[in-house]
């Protein structure tokens, strides 16, 4: 295993769209029908020909829009796509109702196989980090490099602030929570999520906050919203308990791709202390520590994460990396 640490930085068929979604400047959206699942994919037109493909995978309760800032920061570096996992964003539920980490990984693999874009630079956050780890372990042919932002890998001692999220996976808890919070407005819910996920919630712009409220209001009206949330949360908990070759840490050790690990010092969902274990487990890893970041460093510090990603490409001697700086 080789592990280098970056200096800590201070503070396939296309379907018509069926639901509104916020599309950032220069972004495009499409729906892709695959066996057993339909995925919504967000993309940016490549800045030039010949850029290598990248795929971004969001976390629990998120969507492809979580990656818009980082995708824009990587214009000229990679040809970017971000996927809405089944049941999230604009993707409908999977046909088989499988929201496990393996189920989500299967959806990502089906998309990559159908698109023929692999091997890709695969980037995942939180649940998406666990999903991406599994993809890289079982299908190394599809992954050129791996970047994990606060990946949801098993912790023996879960942070107290992460317990409510884990409890969503317990049967009946989501319904109970929904009943007790029925009077909460979407704005109150978004404010709570922002406080949980950001190192400094005051950095969220009014425009971004307003969009998050609109999006949550839309998603709360979907009949499968809580089912997707609870089953995906249960999938994370179940993945934590798996042993043997299916264990996520064991699969991390099997990853061959050069790996960038990004951990936030103010992360309330994934313990910062797990960064050292992750750096030891991924055989070819480098670590970016962001002491002031929370759980979504790619949204709080997109330029810093982009710089570390470009360094990953350069250190890994990935073709085209020398032309990555904008």
Automatic annotation (TrEMBL):
Listed GO CC annotations: membrane
Which SUPFAM superfamilies does this one have? alpha/beta-Hydrolases
Q: Name one GO molecular function term.
A: monoacylglycerol lipase activity
What Pfam families does this protein map onto? Abhydrolase_6 (PF12697)
Is this entry keyworded Hydrolase? yes
What are the AB hydrolase-1 domain coordinates in residue numbering? 55-308
The record's annotation in InterPro entries points to: AB_hydrolase_1, AB_hydrolase_fold, AB_hydrolase_sf
Instruction: State the UniProt keywords alphabetically.
Output: Hydrolase
Q: Which residues form a coiled coil?
A: none
Picking any one GO biological process from the record gives:
acylglycerol catabolic process
In terms of PANTHER family, this protein maps to: MONOACYLGLYCEROL LIPASE, MONOACYLGLYCEROL LIPASE ABHD6
Name the UniProt record assigns to this protein:
Alpha/beta hydrolase
Organism listed in the record: Streptomyces seoulensis
């Amino acid at each position: 295993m080789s592990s280098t640490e970056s200096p800590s930085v201070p503070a396939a068929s296309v379907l018509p769209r069926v639901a509104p979604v916020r599309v950032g400047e220069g972004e495009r959206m499409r729906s892709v029908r695959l066996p057993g699942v339909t995925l919504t994919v967000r993309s940016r037109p490549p800045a030039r020909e010949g850029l290598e493909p990248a795929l971004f995978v969001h976390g629990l309760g998120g969507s492809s829009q979580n990656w818009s800032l980082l995708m824009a920061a990587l214009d000229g570096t990679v040809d970017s796509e971000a996927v809405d996992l089944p049941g999230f964003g604009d993707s409908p539920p999977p046909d088989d109702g499988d929201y496990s980490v393996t189920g989500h990984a299967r959806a990502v693999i089906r998309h990559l196989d159908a698109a023929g874009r692999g091997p890709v630079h695969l980037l995942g956050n939180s649940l998406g980090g666990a999903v991406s780890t599994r993809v890289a372990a079982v299908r190394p042919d599809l992954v050129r490099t791996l970047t994990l932002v606060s990946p949801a890998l098993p912790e023996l001692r879960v942070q107290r602030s992460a317990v409510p999220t884990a409890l969503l996976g317990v049967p009946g808890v989501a319904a109970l929570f929904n009943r007790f919070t029925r009077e909460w407005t979407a704005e109150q819910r978004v404010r709570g999520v922002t406080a949980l996920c950001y190192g400094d919630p005051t950095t969220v712009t009014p425009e971004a906050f307003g969009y998050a409220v609109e999006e949550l209001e839309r998603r709360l009206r979907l009949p499968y919203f809580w089912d997707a949330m609870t089953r995906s949360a249960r999938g994370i908990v179940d993945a934590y308990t798996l042993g043997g070759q299916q264990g996520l840490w064991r699969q991390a050790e099997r990853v061959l791709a050069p790996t960038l690990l990004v951990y936030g010092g103010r992360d309330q969902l994934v313990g910062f202390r797990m960064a050292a274990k992750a750096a030891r487990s991924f055989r070819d890893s480098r670590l970016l520590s962001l002491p002031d970041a929370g759980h979504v460093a790619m949204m709080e510090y997109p330029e810093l994460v982009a710089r570390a990603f470009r360094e990953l490409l350069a250190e890994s001697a990935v073709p085209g990396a020398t032309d990555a700086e904008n």
